[in-house]
Amino acid sequence: MHCGDLPRLLVFDLDGTLVSEGADQVALDVVSALQRWREAGVASMILTARDQIPTPILEHVQPTFTGVMNGALICRGAQVIAENALSPDDLRATLNHSLHDAQVIISTRDGVLAALSEAQQNSIQIKKWLGRHGVQLYRGQAVTALKVRFVHQNVAAHARTLRTVPTLTVTGGIPPYLDSLVVTAAANKGAALRRIAQTLQIDPGEVMAFGDSDNDQAMLSVAGRGVRIGHHPQLIPVSQTGLDDRDQLGGYLHSLLETPGLNTSRTQSL
Length: 270
Hints:
This protein is α/β, with parallel strands linked by helices. The chain folds into two domains: 9-83 and 188-267, Rossmann fold; 88-185, Hypothetical Protein, Haloacid Dehalogenase-like Hydrolase, Chain: A, domain 2. Helices cover 28% and strands 23% of the residues. Helix 1 (28-39) runs parallel beside helix 9.
């Protein structure tokens, strides 16, 4: 990306970057900035570890592309562009753990399954939770698993084991996410960014990416400009710009469009 040129694609992590953790409302100054970027002809994408992006966020941001489960499922509107599922062997390796009473959720395109111990399955409280959320039990049946998430205070050891499997992408299990672990196939946010750049027939160097945590490291390293939200140590080497927190994002996006001599001619074909 040359100095004075607009990026041709903006890629945003969701939690901790566009919104606060688990929220579904985007700050008004970010919404107004993104409207200006759309008017300038710049495409956008949300890439998140969540299984789904809440409707209010989609309405506010109006992204050209979405990627959920850390890029395991990539869409343009309702059209699926790419889907990267765990192989049966990788799913078995992922679920082969000794974490007593861990919460283990398997995400598919159609919904989620819970892989629970016998004691958990007999828990009245857990049965009520499963019924309330419409979650089915995983009993070893064939599934197209796009993501597996663990919640347990001792996930770090299992994370270290799974990181030795070359066909898996593992995030979490390290500070500040010591009790949470997300496993996907060997496709990450960086690979998703490359896929969308290819779809748009642009170079990844023409992309600006924004993120705040370890699962954003790959996409910031691939993008022409990486913008770090906060101070995660793994993002410092792969980011060219840093914002102290997400409250500064709207002002930063507005300021980029007000750069003197900005060249917008290359964005109009998108």
